[in-house]
Structure formats: C-alpha cells, structure tokens
Amino acid sequence: MDFTVAIPTYNGAERLPQLLDNLRVQKDTAHFSWRILVVDNNSSDNTAALVKQYQSQWANLQQAQPSEQMPTLKYVFEKEQGIAHARLKAIAASDSKWLGFIDDDIIPAEDWVAEAYNFGESHPKVGAFGGEIRGEFEIDPPAGFARIQSFLALRERGPTPHQYDPENLSLPPGAAWVVRRKAWDETVPDNPKLVGRVSNAMVGGDDYEILLHMHGEDWEIWYAPAMKAAHQIPKRRFERGYLTKLSRGSGLCVCQLRMINTQTWKKPFLFLKLLASNLRRVVLHWLKYRNKMQTDLVAACEMEFFIGSFISPFYYLQNLLFPQG
User: Fold this and answer.
1) Contacts of 67 (CB under 8 A, 6+ apart)
2) Rounded to the nearest 5 degrees, what angle is found at the Cα of 245, between the Cα atoms of 240 and 251?
3) What backbone torsions phi and psi does residue 9 show, to the nearest 5 degrees?
4) What is the domain count for the chain?
5) Each residue of 28-78: pLDDT tens digit?
6) Rounded Cα gap, residues 119 and 222, in angstroms
7) Same domain flag for 164 and 287
8) Residue numbers of the domain that contains 289
9) pLDDT tens digit sequence for 235-258
C-alpha cells in the first residue's frame, strides 16, 4: 500500500460522515494505492457502528460500480486515551509508505490525497509535511485572532513550498499532515512524553514531539501549500475559558519540546534560559495590556501562552519524574 489516510477520532460520530464522504471521492489517485483507516480512540458514542455502516455502503457501491476507483475503509480501536496513542495504533495497523493523519474536524480539498502523495514522492529527504489549513468558523473570530490562530492548527504560509524551522518550533500541526513511514520507524519512540489533550488536560505538543525526533535525525519538515484543507471551528472554541486554557496548554509543552534535541550537558542552561526569557515576555506583555486583558481575548490568550511557557520547565521536570506515557 502506498498511502494511508489515518483518522484518529474520539466520539467523532457526528463529525466523521462529512470527512468520509469527502475522502471517498478524492480525485487523481489512480496512479497509487491508498486506504482510509479510522482509529477509534476509546469512543463512547456510536463511532464503531457508523464506520461499519460506511464499510457496508461502500462495498455495495463498489459492487454496483466496479469501475469506480474507491479506497478501502478500515477500522481499529485504541483503548489508551490520547491522540499520540491513536497515532501509534495507526502506524502499527498500516504498512503504507506514507501516512496522512487527518483530524475528524478537518475537511481536505478534493485533491488533498493526490497532492500529498505527489509531494512526498518528489522530496526524497522529507520526513513529514503539512499544507495550508484555513478556518471555517461558526462565528466570527475575535479581533486580532491571526496572532493566536496557530493554537487552533491553522496555517497559511503563502503559495511557495518551503522547509519549516524546527529549531524555533516552527512546524506543521498534526491536524492534517503526512509522515514518511521510514522516518517514523527510524526516529519516533514508542513511549511519547506528550500524549495529547486528554480529559481536562490541554497540554499540546504531541505532534511537534514526533517531528522534532525526525528533525534530530536530519529528516526535512516541509510546508506543501497545494495540500489545502479547512478546519471546522465551532463557536464553543471561542469561549474564553476554552481558548485561554488551550493557549496555556500550548505553552506548557515548550520546554519539553526544546529539550528533545538538546545535548544533555546543555539542558540545565536551557532550563534557566527558558525561565528568564519567558518571565520577561510575561512582564512585558502585562505592562502593555494590563488594562485590556479582561476585554481583549487575544491578548489574554497570549498572556496564558507566555505564562504556560514560563511554567513549562517545571512541567518538564514533573514529566521527567512522573512520565505520562
């Protein structure tokens, strides 16, 4: 198998139909083999029944129209909660050269799969890559939203393909990206330190952790703008409580991520540097927005990110002593 689209999902029965319907009619895929893999991450809704229904429907369609190019649809279950565990399950359940991971609230363009496969095949040193992800909003975002849109996995970096900058944690989000199986197998450990946002924990970085391991072994990480997708963002994600918690969680993983490719003897110095630099950012941001924090949601989210980044060295120590994985 050349390409697998893996969909990690938790209670995604309401979101999956639009994504599956979209993937079934992807175009320009006749020159390679591919399948769809739904990874049910311990859902309590009817996700399993929904996928079974789709498998039956697609089998009937294929029988009625045998000349139509259709991907196969496979289902696996992962009991261990956390998207990092779901990704590991997808790797174990697939033998494809390429795996495209798509969240269940992402709607890819009609040629996303073809563009992903073609880009990977034309870049022999690429370990992972992601494309343009724009937002489809149920309500209008707050003023200044562009400053924090990356927390919601949005990426619009222009029309030209280019490499990301992993050293500065500039990387594609795991909401819609592709990994080379060989790069994963050679670099990514089976015991992730960051497992994803589980229950009330909103610590991110689970996708960046994978990419940084690849980068540490000289695999390239690219932006592929021809791969276009839309992230469906409901109004609840703009509630102040949710967005500020998400922002702090995006900062809490910073130290953990920066330590991945840091030499052991340098880690204490990096620890202190992160404390000092992020404390400075907290103070400067407070001085600039101290009278606007209650009314400016974006400024409040930025402050939560800076606070999370300042706390991240202590979160790193906690994770070192009491691993999540």
Assistant:
1) none
2) 130
3) -145, 140
4) 2
5) 999 999 999 999 999 999 999 999 999 999 988 888 877 667 899 999 999
6) 10
7) no
8) 244-321
9) 999 999 999 999 999 999 999 999
